[in-house]
């Protein structure tokens, strides 16, 4: 559905993205993750042919994004991260204008359904809308034509939790219909809930592409151990093991482990192991592991 080949963008001497090789499969929900300035928006703009690459190529539906941008955009629903609307228009007139650009005319009944589910009154002028209602207009505009591909940049920004769930449900429905979603979100819990695979971009380079399940189950393990005897503070100091938390008595300790599991268990037995629990690892924790827990510009809101 989406394919890039060594995609590179420079703004003068400043890096945008470098040699990004991305593949998004038909029918999947693909999460695109990275902090501010990592290159997510630059990548999206090249896919939409709003920005031309310095080097490399991008393809959607097997078509060159640079040569066939107009035909590609007719089959895409796009929600930008920084949504700009025509304030003088009503919601209905704006949606009608956007619908006229689609390859196939949006189903009026489905558009009404989207407005109802999001509790949006499209008869009001956009300048009268709150931030959340403006975001709802953007969501409806992206989904209403039932496009083959949705590119969603922070789709739940400004929405209350109930409406955030509506958007997640809509994404699931798109996937069920065999259509494709390219999703960027700083709410990593919702990415984990809905995405099949994710790509992590750092400093303009795609550093990891993997299924959500594989990332959260294989990246590292978390163990919570309880022992009969107090465990000295440096008892588990070894490569591949990090102590996250311990109780004041030193008898209940939480460890993050990427290696040396057998050695950890052996040392635990030395202190009279009483209980051992494994804990689920979240996508947010995996993401922070790639970004050094916030170092190197690890603000995840981008």
Throw out a few tags for this protein.
302 residues, Alpha-Beta Plaits, 6-stranded mixed beta sheet, 5-stranded antiparallel beta sheet, 10 helices, 15 strands, elongated
Annotate the secondary structure layout.
Blueprint (H helix, E strand, L loop, with lengths): L1 E10 L2 E7 L2 E2 L4 E5 L6 H8 L7 E6 L2 E2 L4 H5 L2 E4 L11 H9 L8 H10 L13 H13 L5 E5 L7 H16 L3 E5 L3 H7 L2 E6 L2 E7 H7 L2 E7 L13 E6 L5 E6 L3 H10 L2 E7 L3 H8 L12
Parallel strand pairs: 4-9, 4-10, 7-8, 8-9
Antiparallel strand pairs: 1-2, 1-3, 1-5, 5-6, 10-11, 12-14, 12-15, 13-14
Percent of residues in β-strands: 25-35%
Q: Structural class of the helix and strand makeup?
A: alpha/beta
Q: Can you say what the CATH homologous superfamily of the largest domain is? A: P-loop containing nucleotide triphosphate hydrolases
Fraction in helix: 25-40%
Main sheet? Answer: 6 strands, mixed
CATH-defined architecture of the largest domain: 3-Layer(aba) Sandwich
Rounded mean pLDDT is 88
- Name of the level-1 CATH class of the largest domain: Alpha Beta
Order of helices and strands: EEEEHEEHEHHHEHEHEEHEEEHEH
Please, could you describe this protein's structure?
The protein is α/β, with parallel strands linked by helices. The protein has 2 domains: 2-213, 3-Layer(aba) Sandwich (Rossmann fold); 220-280, Alpha-Beta Plaits (2-Layer Sandwich), CATH 3.30.70. The protein contains 10 helices and 15 strands. Strands 7-8-9-4-10-11 form a 6-stranded mixed sheet, sandwiched between helices. Strands 1, 2, 3, 5 and 6 form a 5-stranded antiparallel sheet that branches. A hairpin with a 2-residue loop joins strand 5 and strand 6. The longest helix is centred in the middle third of the chain and has 16 residues, at 161-176. The relative contact order is 0.14.
